[in-house]
Amino acid sequence: MIDDLALFLDTTLDRIPGRSELAAAIRYARSRWTALTRYLEDGRLEISNNAAERSIRPVAIGRRNWMFAGSDKGGVRAATIYTIVETAKLNGLNPHAYLRDVLGRIADHPINRIADLLPWNIEPASCA
Questions:
Q1: Helices (DSSP H) in the chain: which residue ranges?
Q2: Predicted confidence (pLDDT) per residue in 46-69, tens digit
Q3: Among 40, 81, 85, 110, which has the minimal tally of Cβ within 10 Å of its Cβ?
Q4: Could you list the residue range(s) of the whole structural domain that residue 16 is in?
């Protein structure tokens, strides 16, 4: 089906005015065809980035409010916390419960097993 789409776009491009917005859109899609069809080669990839767009929406909406993080290090810390919270959500965890669980366990947790505390290694039932 994707090959048929490529053929359709190519033949349509030959039949429409070269300076039209539709021609520009088709050229844009065809010039990025490898990236556009990457999901066909790797089953882990989504066909769209809607989930990522939805997860960063609160950050994008509040960008002006967070522009004044106090310092560059404050901005890095805020970005780190946002990343942890969104990663917990993507792994089916309640971010508050996840952070409470990890902060309660981390002091006694062996450093060589710190990866056990990452959101994708936590059982969702324990932090739901």
A1: 2-15, 21-31, 33-36, 50-61, 72-90, 95-105
A2: 888 888 888 778 777 777 666 667
A3: 110
A4: 2-40
